[in-house]
Amino acid sequence: MNYTPAKLLNLWIRMRHSLWLVPVLCTLGGAAVAFVMLLIDGSIMQTENKPFWLETTPQGAQTVLSTIAGGMITVAGVVLSMEMVTLSITSSQFGSRVLRSRIDDRTTHWTIGMFLGSGVYSLVVLNMTRETDNGHQFVPHLSVIGSILFALTSLIVLLYFVHHVAVIAQAPEIVSSLASDLRNSMDRLFPRRIGDPPADEESRERDLTDQEKETIKQGLVIRSKSEGYIQEIEGSELMYLAEKHDLVIQLLKRPGDFVSDGEAIARVAFCDKADQQQLSAAINGSFLVGSNRTPWQDVNCAVHELSQMGVRALSPGINDPYTAVNCIDRLSAALAQLAQRQMPSANRFDSQGNLRMIVDRTTFSSVMHAAFDQIRSNSVSSTAVSQRLMEGYLRIADAITDSEQGEDLMHQARLTIEGLLAQPHHPADLQIIQDQYEHLKEQLEQWLGKPSQAEANEDSDENEDKEGEASGEVIG
Fold it and tell me: Is the pLDDT at 376 greater than 90, yes or no?
């Protein structure tokens, strides 16, 4: 397999976020530290004049080391059991999608690693503590003290771990962890707007000509050779390939999409001189496909995890609207930040201004639909959650930067109101949400403009039909 830098990075990310990497490194580190301490003991500590608190007998050293080694390994098993129980409870209460962030918990990794490393350290030192038949004895005094210090440190870590487990099992902490993943994904994919773009970039922000569109439409279709979710697309590799062979590559899929074996993933134009089989293999190699979605290049992955947690909290079996409110707060805060980020262009050009790639990009509208569609449709029976949705819309409205974002936001608010009017709610609750909706319209007025007369008449007819159901309240 050809491991490009992007593939190596993807492999490293998966290893770094696994449950086993840090404990394995700590185990190897414990063995390495033990050998270093034994070398120190053998070279400078085998003297007659030693501090009294360092002196010990071979039998005493063996007893201490064997007790610590057995205890550390036993407690490591207990920590693993606590982690499995926590994962099981988290999965049943909040859904299996949130396990990704729970498995990535650094405190758990280092706690397991601390106990395993301390246990292995004590075993290695124990193996070198001996008394031979001719009366010669080797007692690593300094190494035994090191083992005791490791054991005391491990106990302090255990106390912190118990506190940490009790904290991170709470719903707000899980929501906060998922929101942190969402912010990190946004920072990677959508850079902050700092000043104006360079003049050469502005010149490349252009629409495709009809001739370019027709040429690309008739290009070579590249089909997937694997099945699963696209975790990453190596854009730099595809750009190099397009420049090398003078191609234009249109990506039909983006990270997070599911592809089946044989499904079209790209279309290539101007590829008459290129080997089509090698070209297909190279483009397929630039798509990293796995069994699940990751937030590395897929911002909607983290959005869906938060949204799914909110929807699950609104289910009749759980009925936890406060967790849904937490999810709405985090999603609206993220979308408010996203509204002020610079969305990359779908058309990518080389340094000479030649069109090289057309990507299926993530838009503000797609992220908003992923964030609120499911929560909105499942919250129609709860006015408290719907009120928080409206508050979230107001938070986003304060940060939008163009009319398209305002229209998407107003569409979500209108659907929220329509869903509530179809349910039997108290008029006072509806009035609160209605006032929020009117406030949102005023806040978005500069972006939306005035509706046409036909739209105004249509809205008036719809509101008259609903009059009575909402105690005479009109949406407007």
Answer: yes
Q: Write out the two tokens for 385.
A: 């959650």
Tell me the CA distances in angstroms from 410 to 348, 366, 403, 406, 445, one per residue in order.
31, 14, 10, 6, 10
Element (H, E) at 248: strand 248-251
Contact between residue 353 and residue 366 where contact means Cβ atoms under 8 Å apart: no
Are 179 and 306 a contacting pair, CB within 8 Å?
Answer: yes
| Side chain identity, residue 438 | E
301-315: pLDDT as tens digits: 989 999 999 999 998
**Cross-strand bridge partners of residue 258:** 229
Question: Going by C-beta distance under 8 Å and a sequence separation of 6 or more, which residues neighbour residue 144?
Answer: 56, 61, 64, 65, 125, 129
Q: Is 267 helix (H, G, I), strand (E, B) or coil?
A: strand
Confidence of residue 45 (pLDDT cuts 50, 70, 90): low
Phi, psi (deg, nearest 5) at residue 357: -140, 145
Average pLDDT over residues 340-368: 87
Strands 355-358 and 248-251: parallel
Contact indicator for 38, 143 with CB cutoff of 8 Å: yes
CA distances from 175 to 101, 188, 305, 355 (A): 10, 20, 9, 41
What does the alpha-carbon distance between residue 71 and residue 224 come to, in Å, rounded to a whole number?
A: 52
Angle separating helix axes 427-443 and 383-397, nearest 10 degrees: 10
All domains of the chain in start order, with CATH: 5-169 (no CATH), 171-193+210-378 (3.90.1170.30), 379-476 (no CATH)
pLDDT for the residue numbered 475:
32
Give the containing element (helix H, strand E) for 233: strand 228-233
- Rounded to the nearest 10 degrees, the angle between the axes of helix 276-285 and helix 235-245 is 160
Highest mean pLDDT among 188-197, 267-276, 357-366: 357-366
Of 437, 382, 431, 384, residue with least CA distance to 415: 437
**CA 280/CA 249 separation, integer angstroms:** 11
Q: Whole-angstrom Cα distance, residue 251 to residue 233?
A: 10
The Cα 24–Cα 124 span in angstroms is: 16
Share of the chain above pLDDT 90, in %: 50
pLDDT band, very low/low/confident/very high, at 471 (cuts 50, 70, 90): very low
